[in-house]
Amino acid sequence: MRKNKQAAPAAFKLILLCVFAALVLLPLLRMLLHISPESLKSVFSSAGIGGILAQSLIVTLTATVITVLIAYVLAYCLERTGIRGKELFRLILILPMLIPSISHGMGLIILLGNNGILTRMFHLQTSIYGFWGIVIGSVMYAFPVAFLMLADVMHYEDCSPYEAAKVLNIPRWRQMTSITMPFLRKPLISVIFAVFTMIITDYGVPLMVGGKIKTISVVMYQEVIGQLNFDTGSVYGAILLLPAVVAFLVDLSNRDKGSSAFVIKAFPLNKNRGTLAFSYIYCIVVSLLTVLPIISFMVLGFTAKYPNDMRFSFYNVQRVFDLDGGQYLLNSVLIAVLVALVGSLLGFMTAYMTARMKSGLSRLLHLIAMTAMAIPGIVLGLSYVLVYKGSPVYGTIIILVMANLVHFIASPYLMMYNSLGKINENIEAVGQTLRIGRLRLIKDVFLPQSMSTLREMFAYFFVNSMMTISAVSFLATTDTKPISLMITQFEAQMQLENAAIVSLLILLVNLLLKGTIALLRRRKLRKLGASAVLDH
Amino acid sequence: MDTLKDKKTKLRITDLSKNYDGKCALEHVSFDVFQGEFLSILGPSGCGKTTLLRILIGLLEASSGTVALNGKDITNAPPAERSMGIVFQNYALFENMTVLGNVEYALKIRKETRATARQKAKEMLALLGMSEYENKKPGDLSGGQQQRVAIARTLVLHPEIILFDEPMSALDVDTRITLRREIKSLQAQFDTTMIYITHDQEEAFAMADRIMIMNNAHLVQIDTPDAIVEHPADDYVRRFVLENLQAKADSIRRFVRG
Predict the structure, then answer these.
(1) Domain check: are B143 and B167 in the same one?
(2) What is the topology classification, in CATH, of domain A50-160+186-306?
(3) Which chain B residues have a beta carbon less than 8 Å from that of A434?
(4) Domain edges within chain A
(5) Burial of A296 per CB tally in 10 Å (0-12, 13-18, 19+)
(6) The domain spanning residue B52 has which CATH number?
(7) How high is the pLDDT of residue A305?
(8) Are B93 and A444 inside 8 Å of each other by CB?
(9) Within a domain: B90
(10) Cβ contacts (< 8 Å) between A435 and chain B: which residues?
């Protein structure tokens, strides 16, 4: 009888494994198997390949270093100093995460392009197209993610070793090398790899401002979209998969250890006048640079004909909607809602199975769910074309939902895995002795305790599905196209005014969603009363 | 307890063994627990006492041997059908429910009506002096208060046996001493058999009718505290007992000096 009771969860785990295998592993294998010796030869014997690889690497490395440095200082200012207005700064600084990568490239062009707002204002002579364009755009795109990760690391660093060091009279530089560095090494490696992967696999920024510099992801995009060349596309996909897989493996080995540390004593806030002044200036400058592109979207989007006729006008908005923008916006919202609903449910079920019912199967399931993180969006998109072409889902909204689901599931899954893992280990045992079944416990105990994580998961899925241009680019048809892809369409026709409006629309929808979630959370907190603590 | 011989056997453990991946966590353990008895299981960490507890309540399957309750074999019965409750060191309360919700939850799931479930839960909380915290969440309570809720949650179902898995390890000394007294008085009131795991010798000697000393997956000795002090079974127990006497002497000294 007890054997039977254990058989049901095992069967359920097997089903989940199959779902993940079909959604994650199968497409990936299909793409790798699609690589033929001929296509390999044609890619690696082509004239520019050495340059493309080298340029991608250099540009990505440069952008990664700058991103992490900027984000580190930012995280310090907001986690460790006593400046005011942290909530506001945080809100502004994560705005770039709500718009597509390609919009960041576009922002640069609007501001600093040949006819750009700043170019004209200050009569600049430099060109934004090329190496520095990609670097700056990529930094804009990636720094909020690095900032959030680093702020989290700092939030959970323990101050007590430093106090001990102070008592023992250990000099500051020794504290740096013996406490800070060993503590930071692993999380920093994780952040660096995450940022590196994010930048090298993105085609949006280099497509916009790359100029003559072509990166691997842009080449892959153009091979597949422009020439429908799936064979060489697969080869580039495999190349892009490489850093992502390395990052994934490093991260996995990193994560298993040292994640259980907890804070005995939080850091005191640095209220040194010089530090405060610097922090204010730094945060304000970065915030300004963050909102500048968004302001430029408004300037460009709501003028009649930039730069000749600067009168306020709804002409561009009108045009976006004339070109079926409304339909595409609905597509996007529908996709985002479906991904968020299905994704949160799948993420919760999987996390429950892996965090609360440990077994060999659970570990395998955990690994596959995390593998999804390693697959760059465009690689995923191409894989899905190869596997699902000819199937009934191909060309429908469903395949877009599936691709986004897989593309974004790893992070929310991990959120829920951690959150469920923190709930008392003996709850199920208590349930068994009190004759409260597992399903009832899920409904009455685990779900209610995971509501805030569920809301966060929902928001993550929604926001990312709204803004993504990567996984969906090869899968959308004229009927199912999400609105984010209108930006690439307008980019091809150099109609930045309309692309700016689209970016603003996406930003607006995502802000509305984020605002609603924040409101729900606040109401919940008020209900809980004064004793509830904001869990960061 | 001088009258132990007259008591009837509540729980009979016969030749119980448990192997994990080739390692022996429990080896040929046999003993009886009497009706209404307070039995402390004492031993260092890793001695097999938690394994034993989990087998007794049915959370873990034994490799061999039997467990019988009131003469009936329950070796393979599911936890809920053993008429046993368990109290964990880390309380394991339902954090999203109120104190009252925690206690009435299991009742509500059974056939009790809402009203009777609530009334029984309230009575139990009153008994443990927790009435004024009814509507609080576990997160707002002290460790001792949370442990009282955990005990109430178990006791409200009137189990025949309550198992305690180091329930006081996380509590401060004052709270421990108060809770000890409360647990003992609850035991008398409900005539519940209690099996109490601890690595704290002082606690075991202060509370138990009988003490069972375990080491290295084996049962070393089971007897009344006095008998163990007077006739320790081997060197290991003798060392154990001397340490305990020392601790007791220390605490008396502390008490006298105030």
Answers:
(1) no
(2) MetI-like fold (1.10.3720)
(3) 80, 85, 105-106, 109, 153-154, 157
(4) 12-42+314-536, 50-160+186-306
(5) buried
(6) 3.40.50.300
(7) 84
(8) no
(9) no
(10) 80, 106, 109-110
Residues 154-193 in B contacting A (C-alpha not used; CB under 8 Å): 154, 157
Distance, CA of B197 to CA of B204 (rounded, Å): 8
Asked whether this chain's domains A12-42+314-536 and A50-160+186-306 adopt the same fold, the reply is yes
Give the pLDDT score at A536: 36
Q: What would the two tokens of residue A533 be?
A: 């603590």
Q: Is A1 near chain B, with CB under 8 Å? A: yes
- Segment B27-50, tens digit of pLDDT: 999 999 999 999 999 988 888 899
Are A92 and A291 spatial neighbours (Cβ–Cβ below 8 Å)?
A: yes
What stretches of B72-192 show up as alpha helix (H) in DSSP?
Answer: 99-109, 114-127, 143-155, 173-190
Helical H runs in A257-389?
273-301, 315-322, 325-356, 360-371, 377-388
Candidates A470, A476, A468, A463; CA nearest to A508 is A463
CATH number of A12-42+314-536: 1.10.3720.10
Structure token pair of residue A33: 């198997």
Domain of residue B99, residue span? 95-158
Q: How far apart are the first and last CA of chain B?
A: 30
CB A407 within 8 A of CB A380: yes
B22 lies within 8 A of chain A by CB: no
Over the stretch A180-237, which tens digit does the pLDDT of each residue have? 878 888 888 888 988 999 999 999 999 999 988 999 999 999 988 888 888 899 999 9
- The partner residue sitting opposite A429, judged by closest CB among B59, B76, B109, is B59
Query: Are residues B223 and B201 located together in one domain of the fold?
Result: yes
- In B, minimum Cα distance to A450 occurs at B96
- Residue A186: φ, ψ to 5°: -65, -50
Number of domains in chain B: 2
Task: Indicate the residue of B92, B109, B137 with minimum beta-carbon distance to A424.
Answer: B92
Kindly report, residue by residue over A419-444, the tens digit of the pLDDT: 999 899 999 999 999 989 899 999 99
Clarify whether residues B188 and B66 are in a common domain: yes
Instruction: Check whether residue B180 and residue B71 sit in a common domain.
Output: yes
